[in-house]
Amino acid sequence: MKLSIQLYTVRDQFTADPAGTLKKLKEIGLNYVEGGGSFGGDTASEGRKLLDELGLKASGAHIGLPSWENEFDKVIEEAKTIGVDYVIVPWIDQAVYADGWEKFALKLNEIGQKVKDAGLTLAYHNHAFEFENDGLTTLYDTADPELVKAQLDIAWAQIGGADPVALIQKLKGRLPLVHLKDFDPDKTPQWRPAGQGIVDWDKILAAIAEGDVEYGAIELDESPGDPLDAVAESVAFFRSKGISE
């Protein structure tokens, strides 16, 4: 598994100084970043140029469902310019699955087929709400595993009442991406640098090693201190666990 960082973690610094923030992430020891709407600069070409100059590569891009529905060609063009293989639906509004997870899964199949035809891979990123009434199980049982892959958020899965290890094992073959997120519900904020929360990383990393996961992105929705310090602590933790890339 290659270690990446979801740029949402350092969103304030990145918005103020994209180049400087990416440079600091490189200095921390990261070679991959996962973005949302921007990788720096005003255009995808400028973002790609910045990544190339710093020796960074994009492991994936979070792209909201409305963009897929309203500007598909633009999304694909920008993703290819940045150089990502994986494009990820990061969150959906409750109205999207109000008529059932099966219906939403079929919608993802349609998008996933078009994404595959364009030479990329679609994935879905979970939070905790998908575990209510077995929503995530229904989603992945209904969606075509060749068209809709998973990006499993470890912390949100555990918060939702699931066993992350069992999920990693179940999703083997369609789980190229994970979010390496730690938390402690007794702390404020609950999001913690990796190894400082309640996630059982030894068991999870062992399952990941057997699960053909390509990228693991560190993420903290909020940081207890400076986000870059939290990222550095998380990187050091995972390096100590033998993740070298």
Word description of this protein:
- By secondary structure, the chain is an alpha/beta fold.
- The protein has one domain: Alpha-Beta Barrel (TIM Barrel), CATH 3.20.20.
- Helix content is 45%, strand content 16%.
- The strands form two sheets. It has an eight-stranded parallel sheet with strand order 1-10-7-6-5-4-3-2. Strands 8-9 form a two-stranded antiparallel sheet.
- A hairpin with a 7-residue loop joins strand 8 and strand 9.
- Helix 10 packs parallel to helix 11.
- It is globular, with a radius of gyration of 17 Å.
Considering the chains and any ligands shown, give keywords for the structure.
single chain; TIM Barrel; 245 residues; two-stranded antiparallel ribbon; alpha/beta
What would a concise description of this structure say?
This protein is α/β, with parallel strands linked by helices and about 240 residues long. It is about 45% helix and about 15% strand. The strands form two sheets. The chain has an eight-stranded parallel β-sheet.
| Rg over CA atoms | 17 Å
Number of contiguous helices? 12
Order of helices and strands: EHHEHEHHEHHEHEHHEEEHEH
The largest β sheet comes out as:
8 strands, parallel
Query: What is the first-to-last residue Cα distance?
Result: 7 Å
Number of strands: 10
The CATH architecture is: Alpha-Beta Barrel
Strand order of the largest sheet: 1-10-7-6-5-4-3-2
So what's the overall shape? globular
Q: What count of domains describes the coordinates?
A: 1
- What is the helix content? 40-55%
Strand content: 15-25%
Fill in the CATH topology: TIM Barrel
CATH superfamily: Divalent-metal-dependent TIM barrel enzymes
Mean pLDDT over all positions: 97
Query: In the CATH hierarchy, what is the class?
Result: Alpha Beta
Question: Structural class of the secondary elements?
Answer: alpha/beta
Flag low-confidence runs: none
